[in-house]
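Worked example (supplementary).
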Amino acid sequence: MTKYVIKRLLIAIPTFFGITILVYFLSSLAPGSPLEMLMADPMATKEDMEALRAQMGLDQPVIIQYLRWLQNLFQGNLGTSYRTNLPVMGMVLERLGPTLILTIASTVLSVLIAVPLGIVSAYKPYSPWDYISSGLSFIGASTPTFFTGLVFIYVFAVKVGILPMGGMYDSGIETLGSMVRHLILPCLTLTVFNVGSILRQTRGSMMEVFSEDYIRTARAKGLMELRVIIVHGLRNALIPVVTVLSTMIPFLFGGAVVAEQVFSWPGLGSLMVQSINSRDYPTIMGITVVIAAAVLLGNIITDIIYSILDPKIRESR
Amino acid sequence: MSEKLIEVKDLKTQFNGKNGIVTAVDGVSFSVGKGRTLGIVGESGCGKSVTSMSILRLIPAVSGKVAGGEILFEGEDLLKKSEKEMRRIRGNEIAMIFQDSMTGLNPVMTVGKQLVETIRAHNKIDKEAAWKRAEEMLEKVGIPSPAQRLKEFPHQLSGGMRQRVMIAMALSCNAKLLIADEPTTALDVTIQAQILELMNELKKTDQTSIMLITHDMGVVAEMADDVMVMYAGKEVEYADARSVFKNPLHPYTKGLLASIPRLDQDDDRELYTIKGSVPDLDDMPEGCRFCTRCPEAKERCWKEKPGLYDVGGHKVRCFKYEKGEALNGGEQYGAESDTD
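After joint prediction of all chains, the assembly is encoded as:
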């Protein structure tokens, strides 16, 4: 088991380097450098420009620039934001927490809702209940996040007025309770979007498992039906569900970008949007690298969950 | 025949097919005596597995149901039992072994856990005692270093080993009736012989009754005291094993026996095959269900349904024996079927 985890971590290292290369070179290909912004300034002379260019290291070949950036990255230095002149690392870390809270909370909630519903649907397929839950999850998955978010704001914040419209805390009260109240709507918005795919997957794999011989064996042994479903059924059905979850991780961050914007949740998503608008490349790159690392970590975690669920994977890799 | 442990009377099991309800088991009656083995033989789709699933009431409600008849187990009708009472009977009084032990055992659970949960479902004992009992069971079915094996997953065991585990699991609560559904079909021949021998031994020591479901006449010859041959949801011949093998009456049974290769006949003749295939359940012939493939079919067979006729204790569903006379017409089957 430990060997397996170490192996997965080692494989992640080259992947991470690949990501940094892609992030850096794609950014360097993108149009619009800070120099162009300075060029618009009529007071800037050609000498000023050259001096700045050298200072920023932009006169060096791209490879050298990349290696220098990478070196800084490993020292925890992601550069300085063009927009705020603050260290990018600090800005990103400050925003990472709220994003993780939002994505993890909505993932946990989605699983807690979707898996039991999926089991019920699979147990009585083509029943009214099955049609209702599949129908609702389909609607949820096909409605854009920003729209669901706006509907929630309209209903719960404007009309009913029980929940705040946005932000993370009531001004001046940084308590857990206040945070949870602010978390509910963005978290539900993401959950509505995610429940569908997890539910469909749970239903499908659970139905498949129900027709397996070992379920018949379990029943023939005289076990309680609930035990047959949970202990023998769910454990096997979860393996493909975990696969779906792992492929969902990047989209969770993507969905968070929109939800954070709608609910002015102070996470990486809203920072990303601001940075893109002001062509703040160091920050964009910093966020991308951090999200990529988070996705990578998420995949390692799902791999580990896999190996816990399926004894065959544990030994074959 | 000795005292009856289970008696099935006029069992009818129906499924919801594409074109309406189909009757997979149509009025089958048989019984298994205490400590005896009944072999149920037939081709795929003849209803032999459905019969066993009906006894344990394991036909999924969405796909079908037992539509009629009685299943008397120790005198009580299983069809009238509540789900809770059935749970107590399953695995405890009546246990089952399935064909494919690779898919029949849960792949993500250790063999030990699967055995222990069976034992604990029916006995009020603590975990430790249950593990001890599980270990004894594995030893009993001839698995070396049982304590080690208990910690392993099904895919780490060989096919024969897994089938032994299945048998251990089935016998772990001292079931009175063991239903074995093609227990050796997925195994190679040497392992097959070992498993059959094991079942025979356990039958002797524990006085377990066995319902052996198979398509393999050889396995039946090895194991069964009584034989019931099924065809398309009906029993076509039912007698003690000796009479069925020495003196098969129904054309279908004769065909089955003639299609087994034999070492004592060294001629180069081709093996007999029963022509055609089993008719679809929703497209049964009006008369005798075997008439489409029967070499002896007369005009009457196509129009009228034969009853089950008793020829001196040997039951057969064929008009040839309507008057209760045992006739032999083996010429059509290539070899004389009354030679041994």
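Two points are worth noting when inspecting this output. Confidence is low (pLDDT under 50) at residues 326-332, 334-340 of chain B. Chain B is about 30% helix and 25% strand.
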